[in-house]
Design a protein that fits this description.
Bound molecules: N-oxalylglycine, manganese (II) ion
Order of helices and strands: HEHEEHEEEEEEEE
Helix content: 10-25%
Strand content: 25-35%
Number of strands: 11
Length: about 190
């Protein structure tokens, strides 16, 4: 199902990948890390040209680093199973995953971009998991996935929802929300060429 959608359209959306209790537990981890000061304003670009441009990208992020909490460990195990499933069904050769939390304050956005700004790299599949219980469509904050012909698909960042898309060449954008918008974002990676 996931594999078919990914192969056919280059993305897939799955509701309730996380149940309400799992979303709640991961939110607790997010708040714990935020209280410990682990979040930093996100930057764009790479290497020496890394810069903060809040009008372009307004979120703050925090990598899932040690100490890993129990709910995070459980999630990483599920993502590991997902990695193996995708390798089995799509022969992607995914090696590992990197994951960070992201928090967008009200009004913050991330303009249209691709996740591989320097062309091909190790990131093969992008993953987003939303941590917003009771999200209302009027709250905004949609993820817009663009097709090469200019059409686009808008995804509401509902708690528990999983989005997977092939990283290479896939332009996408995060629209501003009127509430804080919380998520986990990750990339399944292959060995560097
Ligand atoms: C990103 C991104 C999408 C989303 O972090 O690169 O595009 O819906 N996130 O949060
Ligand atoms: Mn992105």
């Amino acid at each position: 199902m996931r594999a078919e959608a990914l192969a056919a359209q280059g993305y897939c959306i799955e509701d309730e990948f996380l149940d309400a209790a799992e979303v709640e537990a991961l939110l607790e981890c997010l708040y714990l890390r935020r209280d410990r000061g682990e979040f930093a304003s996100a930057a764009i670009g790479a290497g020496r040209s890394l810069q903060q441009r809040p009008a372009v990208r307004g979120d703050a992020t925090c990598w899932l680093k040690e100490p890993i909490e129990a709910a995070e460990r459980a999630l990483l195990q599920r993502l590991e199973n997902l990695r193996l499933e995708l390798n089995r069904t799509l022969f992607l050769g995914l090696l590992d995953i990197e994951v960070h939390y992201a928090s967008y304050p009200p009004g913050a956005r991330y303009v249209r971009h691709v996740d591989q700004p320097q062309g091909r790299n190790q990131r093969q599949l992008s993953l987003v998991l939303y941590l917003n219980p009771d999200w209302n469509e009027l709250d905004g904050g949609e993820l817009k996935l663009y097709e090469s012909d200019g059409r686009c698909h808008e995804v509401v960042p509902k708690g528990g929802r999983l989005v997977l898309f092939r990283t290479e060449g896939r332009e996408h954008e995060v629209l501003a929300a009127r509430r804080e918008r919380l998520s986990l974002t990750g990339w399944f990676r292959v060995r560097s060429a």
